[in-house]
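Dear support,

I submitted the protein below through the web form. The confirmation email said the job was done, but the results page showed an empty box. After a refresh the structure appeared. I'm attaching both so you can tell me whether what I see now is the final result or a partial one.
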Amino acid sequence: MNRGMYSIPESVKKEILEWREDGMGWTSIARQLDDEYGITIHRSTIQRWYADNGDAYEYTRLASAEVTEDDAFLDAKLKLDKKILLTGVTMFQHLQNM
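What the results page shows now:
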């Protein structure tokens, strides 16, 4: 299937993924797009776009979220490792002075 043939604006694709993840049905998503953005798209068009492209968009969204979480985790781990190293050095110096 031609992935570029859907008339779904790029700006709402993330919303569609989030609404679907929250358990919204295709008809509800179509209504939500109309209510919030004034965009009228048939539910089957949204469903076909999701079937053809949803996994790729979901992977991109999750991959970018993982990078942020990994960075925070690595920063915290480096700080902890530095504290452990400094504690070890301090203890070693203390033992040498005995």
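Response: this is the final, complete result; the empty box was a page-load delay. The chain has a mean pLDDT of 80.
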